[in-house]
Amino acid sequence: MSTATWAPAVGPGKTLVAFTAVFLQLPAIAVFLRLWARQIMRKRLEFNDYSLITGAILAITNSGITLGAVYNGGVGRHITEIMTEHPLLSQPLMKMTLALALTWTLANTAVKLSVLHLYYCIFPLPRFRWACYVVMGLTVAYCLSNCLQNLLLCRPIQYNWDKTINGKCSPSYYPYVSSASINLGIDFIVVFLPMPMLWGLQLNLRKKLSLSFIFGVGLLICALSAIRIHVIATMDYNDFSYSVVPDGIYSVLEPCLGVANACFPVIQPVISKLNNGWHSTTSGTRRTTDRYNDSNNRGYVGRFRTDISDMRGFQLMDQDNKSQNSELYPLQVTRQFDIENRRAKNHDEW
């Protein structure tokens, strides 16, 4: 019997460590690119930025606790092995399990609120903004209920990790499955909420598909949530430390990829800057370099310029006076980059 308070990763625990070590870097990179894009556009930070920064910190914290659960909690080992060979790991395992449930919930909530507030800023229509408020309220309500559920599953709370005291725990299977299912439902709502607005824009099919792809990458998160529900439903709770590894992987992936997905629509200025810089450095003629420099001064940022967060890639204008009988405000789109491209082209020809 070992008296050590940690143990090396073994078996499935090594897989969990590998996934976590790779993906915990993703939120930091995504937030860095987002803040860089804000700096390029000289745009002050908004609630959606602060919320996403909070979500990234919580996602990284969640990943760090996951690593701790492997080395200090014995995740990846059978529960019989922990109790007989590493008994000092059992209490840290249950403490970190509770901490992971809370950080996972808070991280996903912060990411969803960031995305919804971004929708709110992009589409100024009153009905759509009310819809964003409703989904925000639903998201916050889910967060509070899920945190309370995890905190009250065992009473007193210390009974989660110390079975020597008087207490009791409710069955965890149904609360976990229902929580994951509700989370999946909210994910679907967040992904599809802006789609009617996007397809109502006066754009050709290619541009609508491009914007739908940008906003629809969140379907990957929905797929992870759906797989996680299956994992939770088939988990062996009698051998929790061993069978929890797949759930641990998806619980790390979901918030980390969620942060990256929320940053994807607003990092276009960074991509354009890097693209223009690459073309400028690889151009073999001064004419090409001058053309890119001049077009940069004019605000030209590439063929597909859609800085969604700043609303400079397209403008939504209220045309209420053109629709007297419709309850929804028709949308007219002005592609700013089309105008700027023509100006740049005329200047080059001159």
From TrEMBL:
Its main location: membrane. Pfam families: Fung_rhodopsin (PF20684). It is found in: Membrane. Residues 33-273 form the Rhodopsin domain. It is a multi-pass membrane protein. Coiled coil: none annotated. Keywords: Membrane, Transmembrane, Transmembrane helix. The chain crosses the membrane at residues 16-37, 49-71, 98-123, 130-153, 173-199, 211-233. GO terms for cellular component: membrane. Belongs to the SAT4 family. This is Rhodopsin domain-containing protein. It comes from Talaromyces islandicus (Penicillium islandicum).
